[in-house]
Write a structure and sequence with these properties.
CATH class: Alpha Beta
Radius of gyration: 21 Å
CATH topology: TIM Barrel
Helix content: 25-40%
Strand order of the largest sheet: 1-2-3-4-5-7-11-12
Largest sheet: 8 strands, parallel, barrel
Oligomer: single chain
Number of strands: 14
Order of helices and strands: EHHHEHHEHHEHHEEHHHEEEEHEHEEEH
Structural class: alpha/beta
Number of domains: 1
Bound molecules: 6-O-phosphono-beta-D-glucopyranose
Distance between the termini: 10 Å
Length: about 475
Amino acid sequence: MKMKDGFFWGGATAANQYEGGWNQGGKGPSTSDMMTGGTHTVPRRITRELEEGTYYPSHEAVDFYGHYKEDIALMAKMGFKMFRMSINWSRIYPTGYDTEPNEEGLKFYENVFSELEKYDIEPLVTISHYETPFGLTEKYNGWASRDVIDHYLRYCDTIFNRYKNQVKYWLTFNEINCLTMPMGGYLAAGILFEGTTELGNNSSDDPQVRFQALHHQFVASAKAVQLGHSINPDFKIGCMIAYMTTYPNTPNPKDILLAQKKDQLSNMICGDVQVRGAYPGFAHRFFEEQGIKIEQHPDDAETLKNGCVDFYSFSYYMSIVESADPNVEKVGGNLLGGVKNPYLEASDWGWQIDPEGLRYTLNNLYDRYQIPLMVVENGLGAVDVVEEDGSINDDYRINYLRDHIVQMQEAVADGVDLIAYTMWGCIDLVSASTGEMKKRYGFVHVNKDNDGNGDLSRTPKKSFYWYKDVIASNGENL
Ligand code: BG6
């Protein structure tokens, strides 16, 4: 099987995990810059002030800031058609609430986009990917405040105008549905309560504040879509959902209903608002049952209706299983864990690998929304071994990606309009959940370890050559 001509094969990154240069060129600190490293079992700490002697992985990350030409040349060598990246909001507006943008920051991305243009690589730009300016956290408690909508729109206005001839595809928020989970409060919205000292520590979570923040992002996203289209009618602006495909553990109707509820509340709620332009009925019931009252301005409903996205994008790493029985064995996962699925293998970080789940998900999404879909993250976080001769033989990664691409092709044969696949972390970068370098996704190895040692040199892995062939054959040679 092959993909349609014009299919966007590529890779994805995010500035907070990839770019580094955290205080260079006038950039201000972001929420990510205040997070220490962690591991699979030790959570990342969030520090309100930077601690001397503590290692902060995002500060240098893998220095795309200083290596962008080399990295883009490597992507071009693989034949990339699309590169997903994010703009560091705090590189453009260092505190988030400044009134004038930082020219040096704007220039940096202009150079990056020119470099991509040189190789005919289409940029796909995430406007906000876990990198809220920390100034907005300090001043407003992040997206908890409605005031942040205007700051976000000023930022959008600046980048839309500046890059209107260089960028066509945009994503308003990375994994916006992360805010349906406690972990998303700080990660996706910069909300920092007194007493929150660790990423994923839920003790000070307040669902009322979190869902209100989500509403603010919905409104901001809808306004950004309208603004973008008014600046350049050719813009294609999408949503981005962390898709957690959910199965019932047994045919027990209780399990089936529970799985459906989870699917609605963690996956569908955001797609429904952003694609269809209104909160679905199940959301109203959920808010009522939880005592959550979403404060809305009178014109919000109209704004959501008029700001529907042009395409739907999502990350897909794994599936989860839900059970009404509290005694069944649990496993970890991307944002959300679940019950152990005996039919699936898991990665070293406990994420259950489910390629067929991708076909199932693509079909469900297309049946529901009927707009073009993009898989903008998918990949295997694994420990790579550099052999004595310098080679990295990551057959496990090739197998993971091949199995998922096969299922994507099946979905296309099922009639799904899939237009892009940007595999996650195409060049090794810092893990979002753990802050590690050890959890690698890339086609290109970066010489750097968990403590920040290494010369940042880039080495293509075996998967680099494999993916090059996949792209050259438009998916035929897997
Ligand atoms: C997604 C995020 O949730 O998963 C990325 O959008 C993240 O930022 C990716 O890196 C993989 O997760 P992790 O924790 O392995 O880096």
